[in-house]
Amino acid sequence: MTIKEGTIPTILGTMVTIAGLISKRSTRKNLAWGIVGFGIAHIILGGMDLIQHRNDGDILGDK
To answer: Cα dihedral angle (48, 52, 53, 54), rounded to 10 degrees?
Structure first.
């Protein structure tokens, strides 16, 4: 079982984006928005990989 290329960056980006949104309350707003930006960038890049490799099998890469 292999994980399809792009899955991990997409999941990681989602987690980082949520962490940035949660941290807006306790940290500086500019830092929190920077963290959100990095998370969104990971979601976009991971999504591009998923779309590029969409015909390689199911989400786990099994054929």
So the answer is: 90
Compute the average pLDDT of residues 54-59: 65
Tokens of 3: 């994980």
Give the Cα-Cα-Cα angle 52, 62, 48 (nearest 5 degrees): 15
Q: Does the global pTM surpass 0.85?
A: no
* Rounded CA separation 7/59 (Å): 8
Residue 60, pLDDT score = 57
Residue 26 DSSP code: T
- Residue 24, burial from CB neighbour count under 10 angstroms (0-12, 13-18, 19+): middle
